[in-house]
Design goal:
Length: 66
């Protein structure tokens, strides 16, 4: 356990913004290299999942709840 906190922010009509993550494991159990701050796709249209590639803008992704 480190003293650095991890946080996840839901951006308006956009990705999850994750700060302070140390390890990200994909569905194949592979560890992905992560930056100090990353954006994870929430719309399902990214061609670089799990990361956001900006496709949410092209498809006009809207989340009325957030
Ligand atoms: S949230 Fe950005 S591509 Fe899906």
């Amino acid at each position: 356990m480190t003293d650095k906190e991890c946080s996840i922010e839901v951006s308006k009509d956009g990705p999850y913004i994750v700060n302070g993550l140390n390890v990200l494991v994909n569905s194949k159990g592979e560890k992905l290299e992560v930056q100090p701050s990353i954006a994870l796709c929430r719309c399902g249209s990214s061609k670089n999942k799990p990361f956001c590639d900006g496709s949410h803008i092209e498809i006009g992704f809207k989340d009325e709840k957030n």
